[in-house]
Design brief:
Layout: E1 2-3, E2 7-9, E3 12-14, E4 17-18, H1 26-37, E5 42-47, H2 54-62, E6 67-71, H3 77-91, H4 102-112, E7 118-123, H5 125-131, H6 135-147, E8 152-158, H7 161-169
Parallel strand pairs: 5-8, 6-7, 7-8
Antiparallel strand pairs: 1-4, 2-3
Length: 178
């Protein structure tokens, strides 16, 4: 636990407490580890209310594993695509690829990833869906044509429960490894 210096607001003094321990997520971590240890591709859709620890769960799970993490935002498909391409290039110590779609970006990622198990995380995926209702069908194509059958774990995470359910779970995905 980290205590900040006292802060003043409206003539009141507050101490902000930041928790830096990861508590009580063993069940969820065990689930992710079991899926990770399974052979073949894994698609995990993780959603829930804001501030319940989804991002920290994913980051703890990815520690020590080959993975790339991207946090989406509400600025639209093209800006998120550019940011993800920049992050990927930095991650792989490469020049930023010229990509025009998430499909092209997935091809770039596959070229960079070794034959070992690899985790791709897109956090706040619901923000992407919110701004572009074609995103679920694009990711269905990515999954079916590029990622399915590879030793890849794709984690799509979001806080907008309705957007995640309607945008990801309602799209027919032809292969979900159990």
């Amino acid at each position: 636990m980290v205590l900040s210096q006292p802060q003043s607001m409206n003539n009141r003094t507050y101490k902000i407490i930041f928790m830096n321990r990861f508590i009580d997520r063993n069940t969820e971590l065990d689930f992710l580890e079991r899926k990770y240890d399974s052979q073949g591709s894994q698609l995990i859709i993780l959603y829930g209310r804001k501030r319940v620890g989804k991002t920290e769960l994913i980051k703890q799970f990815c520690k020590g594993k080959d993975s790339i993490y991207f946090l989406g935002d509400k600025r639209g498909t093209l800006l998120n695509l550019e940011r993800f391409a920049e992050k990927a290039a930095d991650h792989f110590d490469d020049v930023v690829p010229r990509v025009e779609s998430f499909y092209n970006l997935s091809k770039y990622l596959l070229r960079q990833i070794s034959d070992e198990k690899y985790i791709i995380v897109i956090d706040e995926f619901s923000y992407l869906i919110e701004r572009d209702d074609t995103i679920p069908s694009v990711f269905q194509v990515i999954w079916d044509e590029s990622l399915k059958g590879k030793d890849i774990m794709l984690i799509l995470c979001g806080s907008s429960i309705s957007m995640m359910v309607e945008g990801t779970l309602s799209v027919k995905i032809t292969h979900l490894a159990s």
